[in-house]
Each structure stands twice: as structure tokens, then as C-alpha cells.
Amino acid sequence: MDVQAWTFIIVGLTFALYIGIALWARAGSTKEFYVAGGGVPPLANGMATGADWMSAASFLGMAGAISFLGYGGSVYLMGWTGGYVLLALLLAPYLRKFGKFTVPDFVGDRYYSNIARLVAVICAVFVSFTYVAGQMRGVGVVFSRFLEVDVTYGVLIGMGLVFFYAVLGGMKGITYTQVAQYCVLIFAFMVPAFFLSIMLTNNPIPQIGFGGDLAGDIGNRIAAGESISLLDKLDGLNEELGFTAYTQGTKSMIDIFCITAALMVGTAGLPHVIIRFYTVPKVRDARISAGWALLFIAILYTTAPAVGAFGRVNLLDAVTDAWYSAESAEVAGIEEPKVIPEWFKTWERSGLLAWVDKNGDGRIQYLGQDGAKVDPFAGRPDFTRDENGDILRGAHGEALLSNTLNENDNELFVDQDIMVLANPEIAQLPNWVIGLVAAGGLAAALSTAAGLLLVVSTAISHDLLKKMVAPNITDKQELLAARIAAAVAVCGAGYLGINPPDYVAATVAFAFGLAASSFFPAIILGIFVKRANREGVILGMISGITFTAAYIIYFKFLGGSSDNWFLGISPEGIGTVGMAINFFVAFFVSYITKPPPKDVQDLVESIRLPKGAGEAHEIEA
After folding, report:
1. Mapping DSSP to helix (H, G, I), strand (E, B) and coil, where does residue 371 land?
2. Where do the H-state alpha helices sit in 302-418?
3. 559 domain residue, yes or no
4. pLDDT, tens digit, for every residue of 271-321?
5. What is the domain extent for residue 75?
6. N or C: lower Cβ tally within 10 Å for the chain?
């Protein structure tokens, strides 16, 4: 069977499984909708947390970023891994003991203010929508390639599926669906990783093969009697093409530090991960499920650098100085040409990879018109289309681009989000493996999208409507409001997926920066500083997220130049500065205004005491 047939079968079976679980576990009360009734076993919750955590940014974006950025891509690995450890050990048990199942609920009660609750609701919605844009983009990327449709239609298909099981099942349906999605995504990520490691290094363990010597076809092309490590080969390939060595960074040290820190503390403030610790019966179970989740997450995160490196070696080896067609090579008098494989043309049709023949020789080169060697992964392809929307083709059959107006642009454009999906095709793995990876990418994106949409739904129906606007509504009315809010959120997420602000990993990094600059200081101060009061935290959250959002919007959407970055810090890392502003404002204002009431200070003291930790406050429905 061909790739598309295998994809339809595997993706269809997994979708049927998700829908079946959603129907079986549909929520019948607000408690089931918000926290799955608080009765999820720790092992299952660990798997669900892993799926919730390992989004399209982890499955698709992180390995793609490492593949193209090399050393610079390690910020995603360090930040997201460290952030989960920080969340699991420092925050989750205390928040679970506090007994509120949303971050705005915690903020509103801890800081004895509905204004604080409202600010937290706005921040939760803002952060979640930014994050979900990356997930829906990931869904669109997968569908656009394997169904051979435009990314827009791929996003719409994903919206329909998420709408069904998130709106129907709530947290109960999402939790058990995520258990299945974790199994699918980790199997789909590891199987091709094993194949690629064996093919390139003769070692079946990717983490070890990553540091090993090359073997197979690429290794055979090395001079007899010599050996070269995978990373040395990548450094050589990059330097031959005029780029920075793969193992050397192009970012400044302060930017690397700020991006890593923003990802780390942003992780600890992400509401869709925090809420998972309320789905287990006791505080002890929250700690156990955090440990399981860390193990499940480590399997993928320790493999991603190897997958990224394998993909780059295969991609550069396949396309460097290759002829787009045998006919163009024949015209040039080349007897045994290196011809572009069919997978390249298939990905071209998806609109995520392209080549423009700037010098008319029919061969792919990393050269601008002036002969300068340019990074081929600097931007997304922007195709020239006719009145019917079909891509126009050049003399050699290549897709024509409209974003190659700069004479220094190269001939090859690659969307880095395709690397994990394209890896099996580049390496000519079996078709069923390619279909499996498609199913894994969808599982990763949909699992996190559902969790994020539930956060938006809960923030609006529970924290805004029930707690502030209409406290007397019935349980049934609140459940209906939650489902309507989730449906509206799906539509907003779809729009952002069709019009993303950046690559999947970068888009998600913005969300982490926003979470770092808003929620993290409020949660830390709420747990560990009795003197923190409502005035300080409200002004801190507003100042932190306003600064961070303004910086990102200016430099990503309003044409701001990187030459004007504050201290050389990129938009992906500015959340660290926003967090520092938040902390400073919250501390300063808290200490020049009245302290919190004694009962609030006693509450803060009680949630830090291990005695009675298993007797958490009753979760409100």
C-alpha cells in the first residue's frame, strides 16, 4: 500500500479510538467536566500529563528546531524539561493541597479579590490561545502533507475532531483520550528513531547513536580507513555550505539564558498542565503522577536531539547539488546525476517546502544571485498561484515563489516544522512507518489543544461566570456554558492555526513567555510569601504580561528590527524580563500597602505544612 493508504488506515483507527473513548467517558457534571471527578489513577494521570505536555511543539517543533538550529535549538530541550521538573517538585503538590482546580480560582481566593481573578482569567485565555495556535498549526501541517490538502483545510479537520471530544467529554473524556494519545505519539516517535539510528550509526539506541560514528550509505562515502562521528559530519556539511557549525550557537549567551528561563518558568505557570494535578484523589497521588509523567516525557525528550540530527544529515545529503529532474541534468550534459527524490516533490505540493531555480541550471544550490551562500531555512515558502489557487511552475517543474525578491535569498526554502514528518520519507522507511508518524503528530497536537481549550472553557464558565457574573446558576447551566465556551474557543484556535505568528516551536515559546510573565510570580508568591497581597500581585501580573505581549507584538507583527532588541534578547526570551518586572512590582507594592488578612496568611501557612497533606480542601464543583 502507498503512504496515503497507510495514513488513512492508521489515522482513521486512532481517531475512532479517541471518539470511542470520548463517548464512553463523557462528562455528566461540572466536576467531571473540570477535573474528571477527581478520581483518575496516578499512572493514567501520568500518561495523560505526558500527552498534555508533549504537544506539537515537542513532537514536531522541537526536533525540527534542533535539526535546523543545532546548538541553538537546545534551549527548547533544556527549558521545557527543566520547567516540568520545577512544576512537579515546587508547585504541583501545594496547588493540589490548596484545592482549587484552576489557576484563576487559586489567584482569586489567595489574593481575596475578584479583580485578581479577572486579571488571571484574561491572562489564562491569552496564554492558552497563543499556545493552541501552535497546536492547530501542527495539525494543519500533518493533514496538508498526508491528505495532500492545503494547511487551512487540515486545520479545519483538526478543529472538528477537537470540538467533538473536548466539548462532549470535558476533562474526563480528555484525560482518558490523552492516555491513548500518549501511547500513539510515543510509539510513533520512537519507531522511526530506532530505524534512523540503525541506518546511520548501526546502533539501535538513538541517544547513543547521536554521539556515534556514521555508517550505512553516508558512512560508505567517507574515505577508506577513516571514520567520522555524526556531529562532526554535520559540522562539516554546515561549514561547507557557508553556515555556522551545527554544534556552535548563533545566539548570544544572554538570549539563550533568557529563552531557557522563560520556557522553564513559563512551564511552571501553564494552566493546562497545573489542572492535571487536580484530577487525582489525593496530594500523594499528585506527587506520584508527576513522577510517572516525568519518566514518560523523558523518553521523547532524550530522543529528540538525535531525531533532529538524523533528519538534517539525511536532508542535506539528499538535496545538496541535486538536479531537480533527470531532463535538466541531461540538458547540462550530466551522465549520472543526483536527482531529487519523489518525497521532495510531494512535500512541495503541501506548500511547506520549495525550490526556486534562480540561476536557471535546474540544480538545487544554497546560493543567492550574487553567489553568496545563505541559510536555506530562513523563511517559509510563499508560493505564486494562479487565479484558481494552483501553484505556478517554472521551466524545470519547480514551484515558483513570491518571497524571493531579495537577490541574496537562497534557492531552497524549508519549513522546519516538517522535519519529524519528512524524516521517514527522506530515509526511505516503510510506508506504514510514515503513516504512523502522521498519527503520532496528530495525537500530540490534539491532546494539548484539547487541554488548552478546556482551560479557556473553565476560565470563562467557572471563574468568570460562576464566580463573578452569575453565582446562582445551576450545575447544568454552568456545564452548558462551559461547552459553549469550548466551542467558541475551538473557532478562535482554528483561526490562529491558519494564521500562525511563527513556527510551531517559536509560537509556543511566546505562550511560555506570557505564562512566565503573568502566572509564575503570582503562584510562587501565593505559596511562599505570606506578605504578598492583592494590590501587588494584580499590578505585577498586569505589568509583566503587558510588557511581554507588547514586546512580542512589536517585533513579530509590527516590523521591529532585531537590531533594537532589549539587551539583545529575542521575543522568545523576553518573558524572563517580564517575569522580573512582575516580581519587582508585586514585591514593592505588597510591602508599601496593607498586608493580607490573617485568615489568608494562615491559609498560606497551612498549604506548606506536610501534616494532613492527604486531606486536601474539598474541590468545588
Report:
1. coil
2. 304-319, 326-331, 342-349
3. yes
4. 677 777 777 777 777 778 878 888 888 888 888 888 888 887 777 777 777
5. 3-312+427-607
6. N
